[in-house]
Design a protein that fits this description.
The complex is a heterotrimer of chains A (211), B (233) and C (221). Chain A has 211 residues and is α/β, with parallel strands linked by helices. Chain A has six helices and nine strands, in the order βββαβββαααβαβαβ. The longest helix of chain A is centred in the last third of the chain and has 14 residues. In chain B, α2 runs parallel beside α7 and α3 packs antiparallel against α7. Chain B contains seven helices and two strands, in the order αββαααααα. The chains are: A alpha/beta (211), B mainly alpha (233), C mainly alpha (221).
């Protein structure tokens, strides 16, 4: 049982002279679903990227703790699962190759049984050997969930998780959120009411604009 | 305010003294410069050429320091300071290259002869040019600041190599270089006191001028950005 | 750490073999560049100093046409974020550096082979010195090209910008290597070229240190 803690301190992001958001303070523990909502261009994606450590904030910090110990920035990526429409996997490889390559680069074991289970759950098992380029946008989106879950992250960040998905896909995403949030933290950035209904708390980015 | 008057007086003195004071075989009066073999009447360019080259290097160093500062602080104003330093740097670098080439035409017979210092300043000019080319190709302000800072720092570390390799690869013609036997290290020995005095006054005046221009330059950009932001609201 | 970088390298090689973008174009580029030089020389006798210079000119431009692939491909496919999410910056840089090192060595072995076949004056009297220059020069070339490639991958006008940004950075290395190549043609012994060799070694050490320090800033958006 992991005990993960995410701490956001005085976080601000300014592009040039334009303030995206400022002074966000938040602290959440495992077994929590945080929603992030805001109009288009309000900086939802910017915020989740900063939380995931792929973008640097202008001011403030994001700290991640596992069992009370702070995680180094260098090792952070192995604790995070990330899904978003702008994430693109290697399209010249098949789904299975992608997953194998990724687990090798991460330096983790390729858990064949677990991944088979995930592939089946996301309805991709029969097409696992096809090149990703031939996938529809919905299938690519479902593959991203496997990409995000295969290393069993402690923090799952979902940026517009249900975009491009049909009802069946949405249902499997919601069941993942439900299962996953029991032991871990899930962050959902979305404007869909259906998505936000699964959150314990919602952060409205409009509140953090300049005064 | 006072220093502006001082700067005006210094600059006027340097311009008049540097151009009008005569060069004679045996200087006796306070306004006479000595005759330096190998430089002759052309020696006067030292009052204008050396300060421009000096400022090109100072600007390069300042851009390097502010680039480091930007990467640490992520404060866009530090990037603007580095930008203005580089703007002035490229101007002085071109001035130094041109004044040097004009002088070389009379002293060595050709505008350009790939002397080690000419090659070094050419490399500096290339770095400045590349830096501005990089900046103009990036739209996002933040990315532009970060990447150009990184490039400044990388470029800074390659410059010392020119100092070490150039003399080995080419023979120097430049006054003051190791191979130069006719005029030797001019600054130390060949100039008399009044020439040295004018030279150092020129160096100081140009340095003040540089910092003044740099100050005005970066402040005007910061104010412009602030105004833009207010008008857009 | 190295294992992970090695896996990034394997991924790039696989992807390259599947698309065959860089390799084909690169080999053709080398052939074209060398034939242009051969045509322009005609029956003229070229002295060994000029041959050494021309040899590094071709190496420089081939590097400029091929070595940006490592990062530009990632940027063009939009897979930057994926790589950021699965590896630390140091791992990524090492992986790309291995890729570029292999590519540089492959490319320059081809160039050297063609030069020794077509240029009479490409006659090496001190092979040990030539090989040492070749190895050290290639390492330096790969390091600087990799870090500049990571910069231009994020900028517009990538193709033209790459040689413009790389040239001033590579100039000290190339000048020294040309000098060393001339020495190896002349058959100079090792003692008298120690100064030049130490310049190349220190260049490599400084560039690799600076690259690892700065890559974090480039890689993080």
């Amino acid at each position: 049982m992991s005990n993960y803690k995410l701490e956001i301190k005085n976080l601000s992001k300014i592009f040039g002279q334009r303030i995206i958001f400022q002074n966000i303070n938040y602290s959440i523990h495992s077994n929590f679903v945080l929603g992030i909502s805001g109009s288009n261009g309000s900086g939802k994606s910017t915020l989740v990227k900063i939380i995931a450590g792929v973008l640097s904030p202008t001011k403030g910090h994001v700290n991640h703790f596992v069992n009370g110990e702070k995680i180094d920035y260098e090792k952070l990526f192995n604790f995070i699962g990330f899904v978003s429409p702008y994430l693109i996997l290697y399209e010249e490889f098949s789904a299975e190759e992608n997953l194998k390559i990724i687990s090798k680069i991460r330096g983790i074991k390729y858990e064949a049984e677990y991944i088979k289970e995930l592939l089946a759950k996301m309805n991709l098992y029969s097409r696992r050997k096809d090149i990703v380029k031939t996938y529809s946008s919905g299938m690519k989106q479902r593959l991203k969930f496997i990409f995000a879950l295969m290393h069993r992250p402690n923090l799952l960040i979902l940026d517009e998780p249900t975009s491009n998905l049909d009802n069946e896909g949405k249902e499997s995403v919601y069941s993942i959120i439900k299962d996953y949030s029991l032991k871990n933290i899930v962050i959902i950035a979305s404007n869909e009411e259906q998505d936000l209904a699964h959150c314990n708390e919602i952060l409205f980015l409009e509140k953090y604009k300049s005064q | 305010m006072y220093w502006k008057i001082i700067l005006f007086v210094l600059m006027t003195f340097v311009s008049i003294a540097g151009i009008a004071f005569p060069i004679v075989e045996k200087p006796s009066a306070w306004y006479e410069f000595p005759f330096i073999p190998g430089l002759e009447e052309n020696a006067k360019i030292i009052f204008f050429h050396v300060p421009t080259a000096w400022l090109a290097v100072i600007a390069f160093l300042m851009a390097f320091l502010y680039s480091i500062k930007y990467l640490r602080s992520k404060n866009i104003n530090d990037d603007i300071k580095a930008y203005v330093a580089n703007q002035l740097g490229i101007i002085f670098c071109i001035l130094a290259t041109v004044t040097g080439a004009v002088w070389a035409r009379f002293a060595w017979g050709a505008f350009w002869s790939w002397d080690p210092r000419q090659t070094s300043i050419f490399a500096l000019l290339l770095i400045y040019g590349a830096w501005f080319a990089l900046r103009s190709s990036i739209e996002s302000e933040e990315k532009r600041a970060t990447l150009s800072s990184v490039y400044s720092i990388i470029a800074f570390f390659t410059v010392p190599f020119f100092i070490f390799i150039m003399p080995r690869i080419m023979t120097g013609l430049h006054p003051g270089s190791a191979d130069d036997e006719t005029s030797g290290p001019i600054v130390n020995f060949k100039m008399n006191e009044n020439m040295l005095l004018v030279f150092f006054i020129s160096l100081i005046a140009f340095t003040i001028l540089y910092f003044w221009m740099w100050n005005l330059g970066y402040k005007s950009i910061i104010y412009k950005d602030k105004l833009n932001k207010k008008l857009l609201r | 750490m190295f294992q992970k970088s090695y896996n990034i390298f394997i991924k790039d090689i696989k992807s390259e073999l599947r698309t065959r973008y860089a390799i084909n174009a690169l080999v053709m580029f080398i052939l074209v560049a060398i034939s242009v030089i051969l045509f322009s020389i005609g029956n003229e006798k070229v002295n060994s100093d000029l041959t050494a210079g021309l040899y590094w000119v071709v190496i420089f431009f081939s590097a400029m046409s091929g070595l940006s692939r490592a990062f530009v491909a990632e940027e063009e496919k939009g897979t930057n974020l994926t790589l950021q999410l699965i590896a630390s910056p140091d791992t990524v840089f090492t992986g790309k550096l291995i890729f570029n090192l292999i590519l540089t060595f492959f490319m320059n072995i081809v160039i050297t082979f063609l030069y020794s076949a077509f240029f009479e004056s490409f006659y090496i009297k001190n092979p040990a010195l030539f090989i040492l220059t070749f190895v050290l020069g290639n390492i330096g070339l790969a390091i600087s090209s990799t870090i500049i490639a990571s910069i231009i991958a994020k900028a517009g006008a990538k193709g033209t910008l790459y040689p413009v940004l790389s040239f001033p950075i590579l100039l000290p290395l190339i000048l020294t290597c040309v000098q060393l190549t001339i020495f190896s043609f002349d058959g100079t012994n090792f003692e008298s070229v120690f100064y030049e060799l130490s310049i190349v070694v220190s260049y490599n050490i400084i560039m690799i240190t600076v690259s690892y320090l700065l890559f974090d800033f480039i890689w993080k958006d």
